[in-house]
Amino acid sequence: MGFSTDAIHAGQIPDPTTGAVIIPIYQTSTYAQQELGTNTGFTYGRAHNLTRQALEKNIATLEKGKYGIAFSSGIAAINSIISLVKSGDHIVISENVYGGTYRLFELIVKNYGIEFSWTDTSNKSEIENAIKENTKILYIETPTNPMLNIIDLKMISELAHKHNLISVCDNTFMSPFFQNPLDFGIDIVVHSTTKYLNGHSDVIGGVIVTNNEEIQNKIRYYQRSSGSIPSPFDCWLVLRSTKTLAVRMKQHEKNAIEFANFLQDSGFAKKVIYPGLESHPNHKLAKEQMRGFGGIVSADFGNLDYAKKILNGVKVFTLAESLGGVESLVCQPYSMTHGSVPKEQKEKLGITESLVRFSVGLEDVEDLIEDIKRALN
Questions:
Q1: What pLDDT score was predicted for residue 328?
Q2: Suppose 333 and one of 46, 132, 146, 339 were both cysteines; which one would form an S-S bond, judging by CB atoms 3.0 to 4.6 Å apart?
Q3: Taking 90 as the threshold, does the pLDDT of residue 300 lie above it?
Q4: Closest residue by Cα to residue 369 from 291, 295, 266
């Protein structure tokens, strides 16, 4: 089936009781059992829920995976990956990831005896130099947040297989519409469903997708044991949203390309970062492994005062954390999404105080452009 057909139908059938086209919200904590030792396969809401099951199947299909496991947040989904390692193990991870991922791993998980090497994962030799005898996982984001570096998925997969590592890719920025890391041999794909998959800024959630049954069993066990599950209503909301994912992503990209070109051509920004621009250093790789360039544009305006004019002066864009919603958002990664990352690390990565990240929404792009002009003038 095509992407849009799967987005609308995968994991969902008309309700067998009423024929309802939209899957119901199974808002129940427990299930009646016919007799001792006999049940329908559903026993307790933390372990089983039909609405959640439909969402997991839907997103797994879109990611071309066999198994989907939904969580209460993107960070909960990322944290589930730690269930695959133990104290004394080592993880090689992209040096530029979402600030919440850094905070979770470096400031919390590290305290439990798991070691991390923050590495330039676009550089094959640096990855190989970072791998140790106790390395178990190779974790990347592509594109990275907020610098939009593109990591070679095939290279990551080959290195992971060579060294018997589990490869993980955070695919939140691209969504399954533009990129499918499993197609390149990646073992686990993680999403914050809060972002593009839901796309309406009204749900917190996360999901893991894999083709590996052993990995699925371990993470599913963690999901049930930790209780970090999404509510049936939240699952229903995300299922509502994946139906329009294809049309939304097309418009996000269309607006982002025009917006990035405006920033570049106007000279307002010192540096414009968007994979769809030929000036992007990984533009060629982006075209090879992605079907589009997404809706995130980052730009460095050279100094904080100039950046503040935008951050404090926009009216159509909203100054807020998060991304991927139908409305356009703008943030300063330095103090907001990446506030927990040490100053020297941010400076190394190019996350300056004058860097602004735009989540380009679905408004009329002419209004977004005028919004920036008005804020600066």
A1: 98
A2: 146
A3: yes
A4: 266
Cβ proximity of 56 and 69 under 8 Å: yes
Vertex 340: Cα angle to 339 and 346 (nearest 5):
70
Alpha helices in 267-339 (DSSP H): 283-289, 304-313
Q: Are residues 265 and 197 in the same domain?
A: no
For residues 77 and 138, state if they share a domain. Answer: yes
Residues 229-264: pLDDT tens digits?
Answer: 999 999 999 999 999 999 999 999 999 999 999 999
Q: Which residues are catalytic?
A: 46, 98, 170, 195
- The beta strand positions in the chain, using DSSP E, are 67-71, 90-94, 115-119, 135-141, 166-170, 188-192, 206-210, 271-273, 296-300, 318-319, 329-331, 355-359
What residues make up the domain containing 319?
245-376
Q: What is the pLDDT of residues 3-19, one digit of tens each?
A: 999 999 999 988 888 88
Residues 144 and 258 in one domain: no
What's the CATH number where 345 sits? 3.90.1150.10
- What predicted TM-score, i.e. pTM, was given to this entire model? 0.96
